[in-house]
Amino acid sequence: MIVDVHSHLFRHSHDFTDPFASDSARAHEGEVDLTVKWEEYAASSPADTRTIVVGGKARRSGLWVDDKAVAAYVAERPDRLIGYLALDPTQPGWQDELRYGHQELGLRGIKLMPMYAGFDPAAEEYDELYAYAERHGLPLLVHTGTTFVSAAPLEYAMPRHLDAVAIRHPELRMVLAHLGHPFEGECIAVIRKHPHVYADVSALHYRPFQLWHSLRLAQDYGVLHKLLFGSDYPFTTVDDSVKGLREIAAIPGIPGLPPLDADAVEAIIERPSLDLLGLS
């Protein structure tokens, strides 16, 4: 069974304003239709795939997906989908949204987008959020790494900020998205330190040299087992992500250096991520 820890629910006409809508053309060097279609997702993933679905909230960047939409979407396929709520803690009322999404909607994790929303995730003023998640067993999926949105401060995407959070909240499960690209070394340094902090490999296969280099770094630091599979659908698919990982694993490598451990890369694809995140 494949567990996709990073897929989205976007309703293109409902959830985006500028600058997100206009800047998203940079994602793949051209306009991308980000409208999520279950039939498309299902057709491009194995039938037994289990999938974590997130929306997103970042007023600064023009993204706001209602948690009720995520809850309704996953409720249609409870055998396949697990929903997360999203928070923008720069906006008033986020505490109520947290409790409502968890206690009323039954969403089982939290998506944070510090760079898109414009907040420092290491700031102690957000410890109320982290303490709630730690206390109730809600794993975090945190955007780390670059973006296409001009208004999003890159500083707040640096993986190192989550080190301080993990130190203060050692039982909090966190997944750092996209292996922190292109700051993979920083991401690896964080996940290596903390037993409950992981990274996903979503949205990396279409940059093949970067993915190969990132996996080699993870191998050298002994943290390939801390990498979780994710697609980042609708930016790419499960099938294409699996194919890309396997193609990278088959590359002989640089002469004089050992190749990637193909079995360890295959283990990323088959990782029991729901168990690791307390969601099984």
UniProtKB/TrEMBL annotation:
User: What UniProt keywords apply to this chain's record, in alphabetical order?
Assistant: Lyase
Q: Which CDD domains match?
A: metallo-dependent_hydrolases
Q: Matching Gene3D superfamilies, A to Z?
A: Metal-dependent hydrolases (3.20.20.140)
Q: Which domain of life is it from?
A: Bacteria
GO terms (molecular function) for this protein are: carboxy-lyase activity; hydrolase activity
> In this protein, which residues make up the domain named Amidohydrolase-related?
4-270
Any Pfam family = Amidohydro_2
- From the Swiss-Prot or TrEMBL record, give the protein name: Amidohydrolase family protein
The organism's taxonomy opens as: Bacteria, Bacillati, Actinomycetota, Actinomycetes, Kitasatosporales
